[in-house]
Write a sequence for this structure.
């Protein structure tokens, strides 16, 4: 590649950085995924023993059951038809084609919520027991789980004795691997920002910790039926579904290796340690590592920048291949945006229009990197034919992904006598005083 061609290539890349930066300031819509706190997730749903599930191949196409709360049927007719006939079917179909799980041969019956979240686990018993009594209602997000989906109420007295099965189990969930409880309520979260929908998991099975139930809420006042906004709405719903299926700070500590063994050590109760600050379970450095980037160039010098990097094996292989950087430790996670964005998305500076970054942009893509992460949960295998190409940063090497944007731009400029055209604007951008982007972007 001659010098003129090379410079044209980098000039185009610099222009893209500039345009995406401007777009990010004025047009991007942030994802405000609020991960479920420890007390909001019910664990220990018994389906089958771990030693049986581990032996099964992960080759069952994911089956998602949708259960509508009454609020969905109260939507305006055009909004209901959009959600029911287009958005949910297409979003669910995408992930059912993209992901496979270990087959579940038994009926799924979800656990009942225990009074004050007080639970007993008896040695040698597959089931959990509530202290004294079960709650009269079990919620998943805003939706009350129907009685027919619930297992029997099992209780012990305050000393963990006199344990009883109250024999009020429902018929259960048949022919599904995950159930989504869907609502359409104008909640407090809907009033924050430009929230259209949000989702999270609410119950996990006991053998391998896979999430098996979750909720999704649509904010009625934010649903647009304009044809030109359908693509972003559909991508948003796909994005939120994936948070419930595995891409969430509340699930990282439960990831497993290819043999079904935990990547994070467990306490005597079978769960990882608690992180009281984040109100979730703490993952090990086999999942996420803290990396210090030294000599990180900013507009007025250099700093040390701490980044959190997903280091699970398929993610590492995929991200190294994408950037053509064999020394890259893993895929960087978002470090800004507050709760709901930090750690639960790919880093925007590095992955730009990957759909699992923290802001929804034009032309979002679900790339092979995101599918690799879902495989690294230990719960799924991925159909990579469903991956969409991610062009941002592809093949640009270690400096692009491991150094600041300013360093990368300055380095390309130093190899040329001039900085032509719109590329000069990129040079101005790296000197900007837009404080919320200064360190992050450059």
């Amino acid at each position: 590649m001659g010098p003129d061609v090379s410079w044209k290539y980098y000039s185009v890349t610099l222009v893209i950085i500039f345009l995406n930066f401007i777009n990010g300031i004025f047009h991007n819509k942030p994802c405000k995924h609020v991960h479920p706190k420890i007390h909001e997730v019910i664990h220990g749903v018994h389906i089958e023993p771990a030693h049986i599930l581990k032996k099964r191949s992960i080759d069952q196409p994911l089956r998602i059951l949708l259960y509508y709360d009454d609020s969905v049927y109260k939507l305006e007719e055009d909004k209901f038809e959009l959600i029911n006939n287009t958005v949910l079917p297409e979003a669910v179909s995408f992930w059912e084609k993209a992901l496979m799980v270990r087959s579940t041969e038994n009926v799924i019956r979800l656990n009942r919520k225990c009074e004050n979240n007080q639970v007993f686990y008896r040695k040698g018993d597959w089931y959990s027991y509530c202290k004294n009594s079960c709650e009269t209602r079990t919620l998943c997000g805003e939706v009350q789980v129907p009685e027919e989906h619930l297992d029997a109420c099992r209780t012990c007295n305050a000393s963990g004795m006199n344990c009883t099965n109250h024999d009020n189990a429902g018929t259960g969930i048949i022919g599904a691997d995950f159930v989504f409880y869907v609502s359409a309520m104008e909640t407090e979260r809907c009033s924050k920002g430009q929230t259209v929908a949000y989702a999270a998991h609410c119950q996990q099975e006991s053998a391998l910790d896979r999430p098996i139930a979750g909720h999704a809420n649509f904010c009625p006042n934010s649903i647009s039926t304009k044809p030109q906004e359908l693509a972003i709405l559909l991508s948003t719903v796909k994005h939120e579904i994936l948070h419930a299926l595995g891409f969430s700070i509340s699930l990282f500590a439960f990831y497993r290796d290819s043999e079904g063994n935990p990547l994070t050590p467990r306490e005597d109760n079978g769960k990882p340690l608690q992180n009281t600050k984040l109100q979730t379970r703490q993952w090990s450095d086999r999942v996420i590592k803290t990396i210090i980037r030294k000599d990180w160039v900013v507009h007025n010098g250099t700093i040390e920048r701490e980044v959190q990097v997903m280091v699970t094996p398929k993610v590492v292989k995929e991200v190294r291949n994408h950037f053509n950087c064999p020394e890259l430790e893993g895929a960087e996670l978002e470090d800004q945006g507050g709760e709901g964005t930090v750690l639960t998305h790919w880093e925007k500076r590095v992955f730009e229009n990957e759909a699992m970054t923290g802001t929804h942009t034009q032309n979002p893509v679900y790339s092979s990197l995101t599918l690799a992460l879902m495989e690294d949960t230990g719960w799924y295998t991925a159909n990579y034919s469903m991956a969409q190409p991610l062009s941002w940063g592809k093949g640009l090497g270690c400096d692009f992904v491991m150094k600041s944007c300013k360093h990368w731009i300055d380095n390309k400029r130093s190899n040329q006598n001039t900085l032509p055209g719109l590329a000069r604007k990129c040079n101005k951008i790296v000197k900007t005083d837009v404080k919320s982007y200064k360190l992050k972007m450059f």
Summary: Confidence is low (pLDDT under 50) at residues 1-27, 417-442. The CA atoms of residues 53 and 102 lie 7 Å apart.
